[in-house]
Design goal:
Keywords: Signal. This is Rhodanese domain-containing protein. InterPro entries: PQQ_CXXCW, Rhodanese-like_dom, Rhodanese-like_dom_sf. This protein is α/β, with parallel strands linked by helices. It has a single domain, classed as Rhodanese-like domain (Oxidized Rhodanese, domain 1, 3-Layer(aba) Sandwich), CATH 3.40.250.10. Helices cover 37% and strands 13% of the residues. The protein contains 6 helices and 9 strands, in the order H-H-E-H-E-E-E-E-E-H-E-H-E-H-E. The strands form 3 sheets. A 5-stranded parallel sheet has the order 1-8-7-2-6, sandwiched between helices. Strands 3-4 form a two-stranded antiparallel sheet. The protein is globular, with a radius of gyration of 18 Å. It starts with a helix and ends in a 9-residue tail after the last strand.
Length: 186
């Protein structure tokens, strides 16, 4: 009986304290530059200059067409010149997403930087005010880096969905199989 009472009090204290993930995110400092390693680790609570959105807001933005979802999940590429992306298994993404792999790495090669720039230009028709919703997985810096990079390129309506494909799926929302945009043909 004492144990049950203690567990009840501990549970109540945890509820009153709020979600543990939020406190952990608040403790992650925002770097001056890009995250260069350990991309799958806790992220900051926000991306300065961008709107950080939760699942409900991400869904509303996507369903209304107010933001284009951009999946930046990392992929390997063939070592052949101009080689294709290697997709080892199906990857579920938010419906209507454009998958631009690896544009959230801390440092981009000139080829990958050009790929990112050309695709954002194509997808927005040059409209720097077009809503762009960057995501990856929960606890993944790839989307944070990509959003920061888009801001530095002059895009003004950058949205960061920090819960990513994980949060979307956990909410029971529909997904589709992702197909990465080839590097050679933006």
């Amino acid at each position: 009986m004492v144990r049950a009472g203690w567990l009840g009090a501990a549970g109540l204290a945890l509820l009153l304290a709020g979600p543990a993930g939020d406190a952990a995110a608040d403790a992650v400092p925002v770097p001056d530059g890009y995250r260069m390693t350990e991309y799958r680790s806790p992220t900051p609570a926000s991306l300065p200059g961008a709107e950080t959105v939760d699942t409900a807001r991400a869904r509303a933005l996507v369903e209304s067409g107010a933001a284009l979802p951009i999946n930046v999940m990392k992929l390997d590429r063939s070592t052949l010149p101009g080689g294709p992306w290697l997709v080892p298994k199906p990857f579920s993404q938010i419906p209507g997403s454009v998958w631009l792999p690896n544009v959230g790495l801390g440092a981009l090669t000139p080829e990958l930087d050009g790929y990112f720039r050309a695709n954002l230009e194509r997808l927005t028709g040059g409209d720097r005010g077009r809503g762009l919703l960057f995501y990856c997985l929960a606890d993944c810096w790839m989307s944070w880096n990509a959003g920061k990079r888009a801001l530095e390129m002059g895009y003004r309506r950058v949205l960061w969905y920090r819960d990513g494909a994980d949060g979307w799926a956990e909410a029971g929302l529909p997904t589709e199989d992702g197909k990465p945009v080839p590097v050679a043909a933006p």
